[in-house]
Structure formats: structure tokens, C-alpha cells
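User: Sequence in, structure out. Go.
Assistant: Echoing your sequence, followed by the C-alpha cells.
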Amino acid sequence: MSKRFPWKRASWVGWVALAVGALLLAGCLLGENGMKRFQKPSDEVSIREDTHAPVWQNSLGMVFRPVPEHRAQMCIWEARIMDFAAFVADTGYDATQGAWTYVDDQWVQQGYCWSNTGYRVTSQHPVCAISWDDAMAFCAWLTERERADGSITGGQRYRLPTEQEWAAAAGIPLNHVRSELPPDVKKSLYLGNFHWLLGVDPFEFTAPVGSFMPNPYGFHDMAGNVWEYCLDDAGDGTRVIRGGAWLNRSDYYATASARGRSRENIRSVLYGFRVVLGQVNTEFE
């Protein structure tokens, strides 16, 4: 049993069951348009030269780019169901209790979890219905796993982004005025999956990661799909969340500039995360 991860177990029976479940999950709704890229508005968004900076891919197939004006690298899309499934299969971590989902125009909390949200998804959809605590546990596991296999050094770690890093990747200042942003940045704020009533995308629920054009820095899904957890403390046992989600439709929330907060232990189909690879000895990079 892992000393660092008390939930870790070595039962081959559990591994087989979880692997079969992951395969079944991966086969759901795999259509020809699964990775088609949609873009709203229709105007092209220019990709800056720094988008072509070296790209790094980890052992889970997560692709990373440098965060502008920071030393850290951030995944270009949100953590996927397949990534979280690998974590659960390896550790036996239980993130199945108390998740909220939105079904038939109402919030319900019985019988749903990250692997059963009430919607048809593929392994390429962002994992959701997990908490900030769950996301932190995933980062700790991935750090230990890749230090052990030599993918990263002992001086590196996976973690959630700070809000400052997240905003830099989105290309927007922390305290920005939307009307003063450059035209290409304003366009990129709306490149994402939001409420079906807005008519900006063909997805009822979340979209497979990377379905929309990247923003000017090469990051996908900074707007919509799922709210993304940040490291920052928002007070009263809550953490900062950024970017809005698939169910949002107001002018404030249906944009990458959206900001909110969530309790650390709540699990909702609106919430997910993306990971950063940074240095151990620095709090802000």
C-alpha cells in the first residue's frame, strides 16, 4: 500500500473491473464529429508566434505549452475522463459520492458521479463532477507516478494553476475591462461550449477537449465546457474557479473572463480542472 496514498490498493480484480469500465466509457458516443473544431464567432483568431514554442507531452498524452510570462507549463486542454480513469484504476480512489448533475431541468444528487454524469460522453470529454480536493489528489498521484518513471524530475510537480497563471494563458489581465482588450483576445473569450440556447455550438453537454479553435496562445477550452479550479483561496473554504461552463448563458459567465468560487469538497458536473507542470521550490512561477 502506498504510504502517500492511503486509498491505493493492489487488487488485480479491481484493476480489471476498472479497465473494463474505462473501455466501455471510451466507446460511448464516438462519432465522426467527435473532434471537429467549432469556432464562434466565425472570424479567424490569429495564433501568436509563441504558440509555436516547444510542446511537451506527458505519460497520459496531456500536451503542455508555456504559460505566457510564467515559468510553468499548462495543459492545452482540460483533464479528460481517460486521465482521471487512469488515476482511479491505479489507486482505487473513490470520487463517486455526492455529485450533483443537471437532469430534466433540475439539479439532482443521487446515483451520479464523474463516470456517470447522466449524459453520453467519450473518454475525450473533460472529467467533471469531481471536487477541488479530487483534482489535487490527481495532481499528487501524477507527480509521484512521473517522478518514478523519470518523466519529470524531483524538482518538478503537477498542480492546479494559480489564477494569475490561468488568466495569463487566457490572455486577459486579472482585473481587466473587456472593452479595452485587443480584438483577437475579445474573440477568443467566446471560443467555447456554452448553454444550448445561445446556439454557439452543437453540444448539449460538455464537448470533447480541443473541439474548439485555440486561443491566441494555443490553449483550448479556456471558455466554457467546465469551470476550472485554481489554487487560489477565495475565502470561507472556497477556491477560485474560472472560465464558465456548458450550462452558462449570461453575458458575464458565457466567456473566458468569467470568475466564480466553489467549496473544496463539492462535486458538480459544472466543475473540472486542467493541470500545470511547475517547480517545487516556487509558489508562483
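User: And one key feature?
Assistant: Confidence is low (pLDDT under 50) at residues 6-49, 177-181, 184-190.
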